[in-house]
Amino acid sequence: MDMAIETFNLTKKYGAKVGCAEICLRVPRGQIFGFLGPNGAGKSTLVKMLVGLLFPTSGKAILLNRALGDTEVRKKIGFLPENFRYHDWLAGQQLLEFHASLYGLSGTAKKRRVSEVLDLVGLAGKEKQKVQTYSKGMRQRAGLACALLPDPDLLFLDEPTSALDPIGRKDVREILVTLKDLGKTIFLNSHLLSEVEMICDAVAFIRQGKIIRQGLLEDLRTSNIEVEMKVGGLTPALTAALSTLASSIEMEDDLVRIRVKQEADIPRLAALVVTGGGYLFEMHRKKSTLEEMFISTTGGGEEIC
Q1: What is the predicted pLDDT for the residue at 300?
Q2: Higher pLDDT, residue 180 or 161
Q3: Are 203 and 188 in contact (CB under 8 A)?
Q4: Which are the contacts of 133, defined by CB distance < 8 A and separation ≥ 6?
Q5: Is the pLDDT score of 44 beyond 80?
Q6: Integer angstrom CA distances of residue 228 from 42, 203, 266
Q7: How many helices (H) and strands (E) does the chain have?
């Protein structure tokens, strides 16, 4: 599988302080990849290394089949930082034309690309307004437009929907899915876990500078499934039989909550109840939400590395 990002023990230290430690990631091309962790966990440090704003202390990375720092690969990367500031005195179109020039675009190609990204992010018709008159949501769209100017193959986005209302977040989700359909790879930092859950193919969790869990989102969600059953005729023998399939089991009167490790165990639970002489009145399965995974994996709080 062709990888957009590969890192090998990528590490950044600030003296005795560790920003990231031995980061190993593989992000296939064409994925939307969510990078998740508490504040201070090392997310921004990793992104800054990957886009060339920080030099790693050790380790290496390959982006789009080229070594980290390769000047050619930077032409194929777009980046929207979380706390960006643009020139307030410029009109939206002037801002984009300036950034297009920084990317090396000129003439007809620059004019065409500026028009395309204005339309893509929903700022067409507002490009003559000065940036200082833009709302937070419009500024966020302008930032995304700047990141998209080089038509990047790899796009790094840090909290791209944090300033948007629900309609704006929906618009951005649709833009990102469209970019994915075009074969682009998107590396997404976000605290809006519901947004990540809707569009990401895979995620990684970082805590105290280290990756502690990663994988395809659907695999992670189904790797620890909770089943709730209403069972009559429970006996110690039946409970013991159910426990053989459970990673954990909780009981409250006739209500049984069981966590299983694979979907194939769900019908086996039902069979055990019936063959064990019990009565199965109700059965529900529940996949772990991304928020539940985040809290259980990272502890959910802010940390200082």
Answers
A1: 56
A2: 180
A3: no
A4: none
A5: yes
A6: 37, 27, 10
A7: 11, 15
